[in-house]
């Protein structure tokens, strides 16, 4: 176990890049997590941990007995430099991005162009809690493996199957899975979500400000609306997705 005191240490420089660069996370197939809760969730769910960085004077979780697991200790100032969280007690660690190995899903939530990492993380957390088979991200969504999204998911990322697909790939996958696609939309022809059959379906939620794109709406077999009191314009995207997920589970 090495004690690291310099920001220029290769381990520190690499971890800092991973917290900031989406392209590097995809290139290496790993992402960064921070904190005891996420560490415990990762261990409990069999996540593949690649590097552990402890904060000097910080948390000391029980480390898994993994041969060759690199574990280092960083001085407080160095740990604060690399950690994406303020005043984190640690540990900071990397996890292998899991591959989707599920079979034919029956309940899928599709997120298109969701920009807020907090919203994406919240949907992942809710999906895991309500037994959604798969979350699909399409378009320009916030990175599900960014530190902010990972934190918002509260460990659900280790349990919730996830796929990132282009719109054309999504169309083909839904056909292969024999799933109808329903889109949440404020349009006159939208059906009350309480009357829709959602036990086997994919339900799409769009961008926080603009909703679903015309292209994805054109792919939908039906449009759905969540009834609201008069004068209410819309719901937060993560809240809308949560209501739809509840209806799917119910």
Description of the structure:
- The protein has helices at residues 10-20, 22-28, 36-44, 76-82, 117-129, 147-153, 167-177, 214-219, 237-249, and strands at residues 2-4, 30-34, 49-55, 71-74, 92-96, 107-112, 134-138, 162-164, 181-184, 191-192, 201-205, 222-225.
- The chain has two domains: 2-96, 2-Layer Sandwich (60s Ribosomal Protein L30, Chain: A), CATH 3.30.1330.30; 107-249, 3-Layer(aba) Sandwich (Alpha/beta knot), CATH 3.40.1280.
- Strands 8-7-6-11-9-12-10 form a seven-stranded parallel β-sheet, sandwiched between helices. A five-stranded mixed β-sheet has the order 1-4-3-5-2, with helices on both faces.
- It has nine helices and twelve strands.
- It has 250 residues and is of the alpha/beta class.
- Helix content is 34%, strand content 21%.
- The mean pLDDT is 93.
Features:
250 residues; alpha/beta; 60s Ribosomal Protein L30, Chain: A; 2 domains; 7-stranded parallel beta sheet; 5-stranded mixed beta sheet; 9 helices; 21% strand; elongated
- Helix content class: 25-40%
Q: Kindly identify the CATH topology of the largest domain.
A: Alpha/beta knot
Q: Numbering strands along the chain, what is their spatial order in the largest sheet? A: 8-7-6-11-9-12-10
CATH superfamily of the largest domain: SPOUT methyltransferase, trefoil knot domain
The biggest sheet, with number of strands, parallel, antiparallel or mixed sense and barrel status, is: 7 strands, parallel
Give the beta-strand count: 12
Please specify the SSE layout and strand pairing.
Blueprint: E1 2-4, H1 10-20, H2 22-28, E2 30-34, H3 36-44, E3 49-55, E4 71-74, H4 76-82, E5 92-96, E6 107-112, H5 117-129, E7 134-138, H6 147-153, E8 162-164, H7 167-177, E9 181-184, E10 191-192, E11 201-205, H8 214-219, E12 222-225, H9 237-249
Parallel strand pairs: 1-4, 3-4, 6-7, 6-11, 7-8, 9-11, 9-12, 10-12
Antiparallel strand pairs: 2-5, 3-5
Helix pairs in contact: 1-4, 5-6, 5-9
């Amino acid at each position: 176990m090495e004690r690291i005191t310099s920001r220029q240490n290769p381990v520190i420089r690499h971890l800092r890049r991973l917290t900031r660069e989406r392209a590097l996370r995809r290139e290496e197939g790993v992402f960064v997590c921070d904190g005891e809760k996420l560490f415990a969730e990762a261990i409990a769910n069999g996540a593949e941990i690649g590097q552990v960085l402890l904060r000097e004077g910080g948390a000391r979780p029980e480390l898994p007995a993994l041969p060759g697991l690199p574990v280092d200790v960083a001085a407080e100032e160095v740990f604060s430099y690399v950690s994406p969280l303020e005043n984190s007690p640690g540990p900071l660690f990397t996890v292998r991005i899991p591959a989707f190995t599920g079979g034919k899903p029956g309940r899928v939530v599709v997120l298109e162009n969701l920009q807020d990492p907090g919203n994406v993380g919240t949907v992942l957390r809710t999906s895991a809690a309500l037994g959604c088979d798969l979350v699909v991200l399409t378009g320009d969504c916030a990175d599900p493996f960014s530190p902010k999204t990972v934190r918002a998911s509260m460990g659900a990322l280790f349990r919730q199957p996830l796929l990132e697909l282009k719109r054309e790939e999504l169309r083909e996958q839904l056909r292969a899975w024999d799933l109808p696609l329903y889109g949440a939309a404020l349009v006159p022809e939208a059906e009350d979500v309480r009357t829709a059959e959602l036990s086997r379906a994919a339900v799409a939620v769009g961008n926080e400000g603009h909703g679903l794109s015309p292209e994805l709406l054109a792919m939908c077999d039906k449009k759905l609306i969540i009834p609201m009191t008069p004068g209410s314009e819309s719901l937060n995207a993560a809240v809308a997705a949560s209501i739809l997920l509840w209806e799917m589970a119910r």
